[in-house]
Amino acid sequence: MLGNSLHALRFLPTLTGATVVLMAALAARKLEGGKFAQALAALLVVVAHGLIGHGTHFSMNSFGVLFWVLALF
Length: 73
Known about the structure:
- There is one protein chain.
- Helix content is 68%, strand content 0%.
- The N and C termini lie far apart (31 Å).
- It is mainly α.
- The chain has three helices and no strands.
- The chain has helices spanning 6-30, 35-46, 60-72.
- α1 (6-30) packs antiparallel against α2 (35-46) and α1 (6-30) packs parallel to α3 (60-72).
């Protein structure tokens, strides 16, 4: 549906990475954190060493991280 370009292959992993960042901020909100805590949680997920490469390659690794975050939420 999206074609076979490099951008099409990286669209879904990028979307899952953005969802993981959003879920981290929502988890901080659920734990009654303020705006700073939500922003810090999202920032820490963005710069996490183990998660940086997951949003750039089309593999099950990026989806696995998303499924674990959804299960923990």
